[in-house]
Amino acid sequence: MNLHIDKASLERIGIPIPEHSKLPDLVIYDESKNWLYLIEAVTSHGPMTPKRIVEKEVFLKACKAGKVCASAFPDLTELKRHTNEIAWDTEVWIMELPEHMIHFNGDFWGRDEDRVDRLASAFWLCLHYLWI
To answer: Residue 28's Cα: distance from chain center in Å?
Structure first.
């Protein structure tokens, strides 16, 4: 697996580079909405926990984009193993059900079905290789 970091883009939106270990498995920036999607593949470091959310807030304090934190799971069995660790107000995506997203409390990003479909597709394309 190769690590790809677009340093120029990350620096432009206020994300420091030296601590790459603080970055989640996948970072997607939606410039049109100024949203930063921070996605953890559960099989690498576990789900987005309350502790990880606080760490990411500190690490990304200079980034003014809205943050959307998500955990990606290969299947429902893996999700069930981690449900008690998942932070509130985060998203969950399951590879075996790629067309669905689960929101843990609070307000959902919205009902723009195209955006949800695009995000689910992005999850699938970027994370599929992690479990193959």
So the answer is: 8
